[in-house]
Amino acid sequence: MRCPFCSHEDTNVVDTRSNPGTNVIRRRRKCPKCDKRFTTYERVELRMPRLVKKDGSRSDFDRDKLVGSMMLALRKRPVATEAIDGAVDRIEEKLRSLGEREIPTSRVGDLVMRELARLDKIAYIRFASVYRSFETPDDFREAVQEIKSPRRRRK
């Protein structure tokens, strides 16, 4: 592993910790050249299904794009980064467990909405307003009612 500070080619692993229940290993590393420490995360890379957009075009699943859209909805909300990572991990696991080679983006959007409803109600409303293209105050009212009574939530 190359040092991000001095670009030295070889670094030493100081500590390794696996996170139970996830496929992530955290490693603390130290550069023998500049003596700086940094953390790396190793994640099992499994093939994700391709996404089929509304217009029929296809694209590869992008975890960073998913995290970015969730972070936008959660901006300035009191939600820990670990909780967001856990939600994204659950979404990825659900997509992999479907066993399909291609999945419509609407399915991913529904999974994101479900996770945001668990994490933060305001973020759920923010995401829903864009995802469902709200045009009137009544659209917001409906979304608030859904969040208040989960049995009525759209699927």
Strand content: 15-25%
Question: H/E series, N to C?
Answer: EEEEEHHEHHH
- The helical percent reads 40-55%
Instruction: For the record, give the distance between the C-alpha atoms at the N and C termini, rounded to a whole number.
Output: 44 Å
Question: What summary fits the major beta sheet?
Answer: 3 strands, antiparallel
Structural class: alpha+beta
Counted up, domains total 2
Number of helices: 5
Q: Mean pLDDT score, rounded?
A: 88
* Rounded Rg: 19 Å
Side by side, the strands of the main sheet go: 1-2-3
- Described by the principal axes of the CA atoms, the overall outline is elongated
Question: Quick one: how many beta strands?
Answer: 6
Low-confidence parts lasting 5 or more residues at pLDDT below 50?
Answer: none
